[in-house]
Design a protein that fits this description.
By secondary structure, the protein is an alpha/beta fold. Helix content is about 50%, strand content about 10%. This is RNA-binding transcriptional accessory protein.
Length: about 725
C-alpha cells in the first residue's frame, strides 16, 4: 500500500508527525528492525522510541490488511454488477473495519436465507411497496404476487416481511444505533450450568455462578475467566442490552405511520432485530470485548516478561545450581564463570532418605573443588528447607563426622575454618519453566548425554548468572508471569512476546563470544540460520576479535551486519568500541574526536576531561545529527554498560514456613512473583503466593499495578485474610 496514503491515517491515530512516520515506514520496508531504527536512525524518525515505532508498524499492518479486504469487497460487488461510482468512493474512503463490513453486508454472499427465498419468489417489489408505506391496502397489493410458489396473500406478505427484516438488520444506520446502545448499556452475565455446579472443576468459577456486570466495566481478567469457564462447559455467558429500547430505536427509523403498512414494518423490525441483528451485534461485542481483554492481558504479560528478562544478573561467577527436592533428592550442578557444566551429582539431606551428614560433605567438597562463588536454589518444592540446610553447611564449614570424612576422603574434604565460605552468597531463583527447558530440543542439543534433572539444575544456576541469556531459551508462556495467557489470541501473544524478547536482548547487548545460538537469534538482523552460522564460525575459528569478522560469517551480508553489529559486544577487543553500543558506521566520528583531542580512542574513553572538551556540534553532518552524537557521548562514558539493576539478597521470615503459621495482621517480607491488572502476587515463603489486590497496593488510586511494583521486587506485606478452604491469601501493602 502507498505510504503517502497510510501516513496521514497513522499520524491522526497516533498523534505523531507525518515525517517521522513516513521515514519509519520506509525503514521498515527496507528490512530494518525496530531496535535498530529506534537506536541508530533517530535523525530519520525524529527520535521515535521503540513503543512508538512498534505502534506505527502494527497500525501499518492493520491498514494494509484493511486495504486487502477492500480489494476483495470491490471485486465481489463488481462481479455482482452492483458497483456504482458513489459506492466505490465510499469504500475507498473507509478505513474503519466495522464500517467497511457494514457497507459490504447487503452485498455479501450468504447462505440461502428466508429473505433470499422470498426474493426468488418475486416478492421484493411487494417489500418495497410496504416500506414506502403509501399503500392503503397492502393485502390487495399482495394479491398480484400470488402464484404457484406463493399460495396466498398471507404467504406473500410474510415473504415481504422477511425481506424487510433482513433489510433492517443490514441497514448501516440501524446497526450504528444498536451499537450505540450496546456501547452504553450492554451487560455481560454468566450462569453456571446446573449439572456442573457441584463438580470440583466448577469450584474455581464459583464467583461467576450468577454474575452480572455492565460490559464496559468488566475487567479483562473477569471476562477471560468467564470465557474460560464457558469453554470448559461450566458457565453460560451472554452479552445483551435492553431489547425494548433497541426495537423502539429501530421503529423510529423505519416506521413512518400508524397504518397497516406501519404495523407490518413494526413486526418486521422486531423480527429482524431478534432473529438477525441482535445475534450479530452480540457476537460482535463478544468478539470486541474478548479482543480488548486479550490486548490487556497480552500487555500485562509482555510487561512482566520484560521485567523478568531484565532482572538483575549476578554476572560471570562460578555458581552452584541446586534443584531442590525431598524424596528424589537435590540435584546439584557446578558451573564455571561462563556457565559451562563442570560437575553434577545428587544429595539427599531431607526425609525420607535424610543423609544429612553425607550431603554436607558432598556440598563442602564441591564448594572447595570448583571454587564456588555463589549458590542458586530453585524456589520449588523443598526450597526453604534446602536453603536452611545449605546455610548450616556454610556455617559449619567442612567439619562433618570422622566417619563421613573418611568415606569422602577421595573428594579431598579437609577441615576448613568457618570463614572459608563466608563470601559465598545464596540466592533463591524462580524455577518457572525450568522443567520445560530441560525437556526441550535446545536443552537436548546442549546436554545430549544428561538427563532432565541435570539440565533443570543448570538452568537454575544460569538464571542467577544471567536471567536474560537463559530465559530466552524457554517459551515465554511457560515462565509463569502471565494472566490467562493460554486463553488469549495466540498469534498476537507470540508476536508481542517475541518483540519483547527482541527488545530486551538488544537493549542489554550480547557477548558475541559467549552467547548461545538461541540468544543470538533475537539479536537485530539475525535469526536461527545466521545465529547458528555465527556459533559454528566461532567454534571453527575461535573467539571473535573484532566486529568486522562478522562479515566473514557465511550468509551474513551487509544488511544483516548493519542491523546486528551495534548490539553485539566483544569484551577485550583491540578496538574498545567493539565492546560498546557505538555502531561501526560511527567509528570514524569517534576516531576523529580522539584525533582532535590528541589521543587514542582508548584514552578518550578513559578521560572524562577530554570528553568534556568535545564540542559535539562540530561533528554534525547532513547524515549525523545531535541525537546520534549524544548517544555516542553517553556510550563513551560507560562503554557496554548493562542497563540492569544490581542483584540483591533476600530472606523470608524464618518463623513462617507454611500457611498454618499465618495470622491476620502479620507483617512479612515477600517477593513479587507475578503482576496482573487486578493486583500482584507475592511469595512470602509458604508455598502459596498471596495476592495484593490493586486496591491494596497503596493508599491512592492505582490504574496500573506495574506503576507501583515490579517483578522480583522485595516488599513488605501485611496478612489481611487467609482462606484455607480455597487456599487463598489476601495481603496488603498499605501502611506497612
Amino acid at each position: 500500500m502507498d505510504n503517502s496514503i497510510l501516513t496521514p491515517l497513522i499520524s491522526d491515530e497516533l498523534s505523531l508527525p507525518e515525517s517521522g512516520i513516513s521515514n519509519t515506514l520506509q525503514l521498515l520496508a527496507d528490512g530494518c528492525t525496530i531496535p535498530f531504527i529506534s537506536r541508530y536512525r533517530k535523525e530519520r524518525t525524529g527520535g521515535l522510541d521503540e513503543v512508538q515505532i512498534a505502534a506505527i508498524s502494527e497500525m501499518n499492518d492493520r491498514l494494509n490488511e484493511t486495504a486487502r479486504r477492500k480489494d476483495t469487497i470491490i471485486k465481489t460487488i463488481t462481479e455482482q454488477g452492483k458497483m456504482t461510482g458513489e459506492l466505490k468512493l465510499r469504500i475507498d474512503r473507509c478505513w474503519n473495519a466495522t464500517e467497511l463490513e457494514d457497507i459490504y453486508l447487503p452485498y455479501k454472499p450468504k447462505r440461502r436465507t428466508r429473505a433470499q427465498v422470498a426474493r426468488e419468489q418475486g416478492l421484493e417489489p411487494l417489500s418495497v411497496i410496504i416500506i414506502m408505506q403509501r399503500e392503503q391496502n397492502p393485502k390487495e397489493a399482495a394479491r398480484r404476487f400470488v402464484n404457484g410458489e406463493v399460495k396466498d396473500v398471507d404467504t406473500a406478505i410474510k415473504g415481504a416481511q422477511d425481506i424487510i427484516a433482513e433489510t433492517v438488520s443490514e441497514d448501516e444506520q440501524a446497526r450504528r444505533r444498536i451499537r450505540d446502545i450496546f456501547h452504553r448499556e450492554a451487560v455481560i452475565t454468566s450462569k453456571v450450568i446446573k449439572t456442573k455446579a457441584d463438580t470440583d472443576e466448577a469450584a474455581k468459577y464459583s464467583d461467576y455462578f450468577d454474575f452480572s456486570e455492565p460490559l464496559r466495566r468488566c475487567s479483562s481478567h473477569r471476562l477471560l475467566a468467564m470465557r474460560r469457564g464457558e469453554a470448559e462447559g461450566i458457565l453460560r455467558v451472554n452479552i445483551s442490552a435492553d431489547d425494548d429500547e433497541c426495537t423502539e430505536k429501530l421503529k423510529r427509523i423505519f416506521v413512518k405511520g400508524s397504518g397497516y403498512c406501519g404495523k407490518l414494518i413494526a413486526e418486521s423490525v422486531e423480527d429482524g432485530y431478534k432473529r438477525l441483528l441482535k445475534p450479530s451485534i452480540e457476537n460482535e461485542f463478544a468478539s470486541l470485548s474478548k479482543e480488548k481483554a486479550d490486548n490487556e492481558a497480552i500487555n500485562v504479560f509482555a510487561e512482566n516478561l520484560r521485567q523478568l528478562l531484565l532482572s538483575a544478573p549476578l554476572g560471570q561467577k562460578r555458581v552452584m545450581g541446586i534443584d531442590p527436592g525431598f524424596r528424589t533428592g537435590c540435584k546439584i550442578v557446578c558451573l564455571d564463570a561462563q556457565g559451562n557444566l563442570l560437575h553434577h551429582e545428587a544429595i539427599f539431606p531431607h526425609p525420607p532418605v535424610s543423609k544429612r551428614e553425607q550431603a554436607m560433605a558432598q556440598i563442602t567438597s564441591m564448594l572447595e573443588k570448583y571454587d564456588i562463588e555463589a549458590i542458586a536454589i530453585g524456589n520449588g518444592t523443598a526450597s526453604r528447607e534446602t536453603k536452611d540446610f545449605v546455610e548450616k553447611t556454610l556455617e559449619k564449614g567442612s567439619s562433618p563426622s570422622q566417619s563421613t570424612q573418611q568415606q569422602y576422603a577421595q573428594k579431598s574434604v579437609s577441615s576448613t575454618s568457618n570463614h572459608k565460605f563466608a563470601s559465598i552468597k545464596i540466592f533463591v531463583v524462580s524455577e518457572d519453566g525450568a522443567s520445560v527447558y530441560s525437556a526441550s530440543k535446545t536443552a537436548r542439543e546442549e546436554f545430549p548425554d544428561k538427563d532432565v534433572t541435570v539440565r533443570g539444575a543448570v538452568s537454575i544456576g544460569r538464571r542467577l548468572m544471567d536471567p536474560l541469556a537463559e530465559l530466552v531459551k524457554i517459551d515465554p508462556k511457560s515462565i509463569g508471569v502471565g494472566q490467562y495467557q493460554h486463553d488469549v489470541d495466540q498469534t498476537k501473544l507470540k508476536k508481542s512476546l517475541d518483540h519483547t524478547v527482541e527488545s530486551c536482548v538488544n537493549s542489554v547487548g550480547v557477548n558475541l563470544n559467549t552467547a548461545s545460538s538461541h540468544l543470538l537469534t533475537y539479536v537485530s538482523g539475525l535469526g536461527p540460520t545466521l545465529a547458528g552460522n555465527i556459533v559454528e564460525y566461532r567454534r571453527e575459528k575461535g573467539p571473535f576479535t573484532s566486529r568486522a569478522q562478522l562479515k566473514k560469517v557465511p550468509r551474513l551480508g551487509p544488511t544483516a551486519y548493519e542491523q546486528c553489529a551495534g548490539f553485539l559486544r566483544i569484551p577485550g577487543a583491540s578496538n574498545p568500541l567493539d565492546n560498546s553500543a557505538v555502531h561501526p558506521e560511527s567509528y570514524k566520528i569517534v576516531e576523529q574526536m580522539a584525533e582532535d583531542c590528541g589521543c587514542s580512542v582508548k584514552e578518550l574513553i578513559a578521560s572524562a576531561e577530554k570528553r568534556k572538551s568535545i564540542k559535539i556540534k562540530h561533528y554534525v553532518t547532513d547524515k549525523v545529527g545531535l541525537p546520534t552524537l549524544n548517544d555516542i557521548m553517553q556510550e563513551l562514558e560507560k562503554p557496554g554498560r548493562d542497563p540492569r539493576e544490581q542483584i540483591e539478597e533476600f530472606e523470608f521470615d524464618p518463623n513462617v514456613t507454611s500457611v498454618d503459621n499465618l495470622t491476620e495482621g502479620m507483617v512479612l517480607p515477600g517477593i513479587v512473583t507475578n503482576i496482573t491488572n487486578f493486583g500482584a502476587f507475592i511469595d512470602i515463603g509458604v508455598h502459596q503466593d498471596g495476592l495484593v489486590h490493586i486496591s491494596q497496593l497503596t493508599n491512592h488510586y492505582v490504574a496500573d499495578p506495574t506503576q507501583i511494583v515490579h517483578l522480583h521486587q522485595h516488599v513488605k506485606v501485611k496478612v489481611m485474610e487467609v482462606d484455607r478452604k480455597r487456599n487463598r491469601i489476601s495481603l496488603t501493602m498499605k501502611d506497612v
